[in-house]
Specification:
The protein is mainly alpha-helical. The protein has 2 domains: about 120 residues, P-loop containing nucleotide triphosphate hydrolases (Rossmann fold), CATH 3.40.50.300; about 120 residues, no CATH class. It is built from 10 helices and 5 strands, in the order βαααβαβαββααααα. The strands form 2 sheets. Strands 1-2-3 form a 3-stranded parallel sheet, covered by helices on one side. The protein has a two-stranded antiparallel ribbon with strand order 4-5. The chain is rod-shaped, with a radius of gyration of 33 Å. The termini are far apart.
C-alpha cells in the first residue's frame, strides 16, 4: 500500500490530493538527537510558535519540562506518543497506523483515541486491540490468512457479534438439513414399484385408484422441493450483514424459517403416508 513492498497482484492507486502519513511499530522516523519539541517542529510550519507546539504536545501527555527531553531518553510508550503526535500535526489527510497501541499504557492509549477522534482525515489501521478498534473504526476489513477478505460496516464488536450470529445460523441450518435429510422419504421408484405390483395383483379398478395416489405423490414431491429451496434461501438471507443489523428483519426471517421448516416436516409425513398406503394396498 505504501510502496515498501511490491503487491502480489492488482493495482494500488491513491487519489491526486492524498497525503499519507505512516506510523510504523519500529518508530524509525524519530531522530533521537532531538528534544521532543524540536522533533515536532520538523513537521510544523515555520510560523508555528513554541506555545502552539507545547499546547499540541500536551494533548499527548508531554507537559512542562517533558517537551525538552531528548528522544533517546524516552520510553517506548513516549516514543510512540511522539511519533503519533508528529503524524497528526503534519496535516496529512490519510493516517496508516501499524499496531499503534502496542507501546502505550492506558493513559497514553486514551490520549491517542481522543486525538484520533478529533482527526478529520481517513485512518487505516492494523490492530489486535479490539477496544481501540471499537473506539476508532467505522469499517472492518477482516483477512482470514487464506487469501479471503471480509468487509463490514461497523466497529469490531458489531462485526464480531454479526460473525458469531452468522456462524450460529449456519450451524443451525446445517443441523436442521441433516435432520430433515434423515427423515426424508425414499425415492419415488419405491412407490412406483409398489403401485405396479398392486396393479398387477388387483386389476384395472385398483390401478386407477393408485394412479390417483401417484398424482398426489407427485404434487407432494413438488411442494417438498419448493419448501427445501425456500428454507435454504432463508438460511442464507439470515446470515447476511444487513439482516444481522436489523433485529426486526431477522425476527421476521426466523419466523418464516420456522414455519417453512414445520411445513416441510408435514410434507415428509404426508409423503410417507402415501408410500405406506401404496405398499399395503
Amino acid at each position: 500500500m505504501l510502496g515498501k513492498l511490491p503487491q502480489l497482484a492488482g493495482e494500488i492507486r491513491w487519489g491526486a490530493n492524498v497525503s499519507v502519513g505512516y506510523y510504523a511499530q519500529q518508530l524509525d522516523d524519530l531522530d533521537e538527537r532531538n528534544e521532543v519539541i524540536m522533533e515536532l517542529r520538523r513537521v510544523a510550519p515555520s510560523t508555528a510558535t513554541a506555545g502552539e507546539l507545547r499546547g499540541f504536545l500536551a494533548r499527548f501527555l508531554f507537559t512542562g519540562d517533558d517537551v525538552y527531553k531528548h528522544v533517546a531518553d524516552l520510553s517506548g510508550g513516549e516514543k510512540g506518543r511522539l511519533a503519533l503526535a508528529k503524524l497528526i500535526y503534519s496535516r496529512v489527510n490519510v493516517l496508516v497506523l501499524d499496531e499503534p497501541t502496542n507501546h502505550l499504557d492506558i493513559p497514553s492509549r486514551e490520549s491517542l483515541e481522543e486525538a484520533l477522534d478529533a482527526y478529520d482525515g481517513t485512518i487505516i489501521t492494523i490492530s489486535h486491540d479490539r477496544y481501540f478498534l471499537d473506539r476508532v473504526a467505522t469499517q472492518i476489513l477482516a483477512l482470514d490468512g487464506e487469501g479471503r477478505a471480509e468487509h463490514y460496516e461497523g466497529d469490531y464488536t458489531e462485526y464480531h457479534d454479526w460473525k458469531a450470529a452468522r456462524r450460529a445460523a449456519e450451524l443451525s441450518a446445517k443441523s436442521e438439513r441433516e435432520k430433515l435429510a434423515a427423515s426424508k422419504p425414499a425415492p419415488r421408484e419405491d412407490l412406483k414399484g409398489g403401485r405396479d405390483a398392486g396393479a398387477k395383483a388387483q386389476g384395472g379398478k385398483d390401478s386407477k385408484r393408485k394412479k390417483g395416489r401417484a398424482r398426489d405423490a407427485r404434487a407432494v414431491e413438488e411442494e417438498i422441493a419448493v419448501a427445501e429451496k425456500r428454507l435454504a434461501a432463508l438460511g442464507g438471507e439470515m446470515s447476511t450483514p444487513g439482516a444481522a443489523r436489523d433485529a426486526g428483519r431477522l425476527a421476521r426471517l426466523n419466523e418464516e424459517y420456522t414455519r417453512t421448516e414445520e411445513r416441510l416436516r408435514e410434507l415428509y409425513e404426508e409423503w410417507e403416508r402415501i408410500v405406506a398406503e401404496a405398499a399395503s394396498a
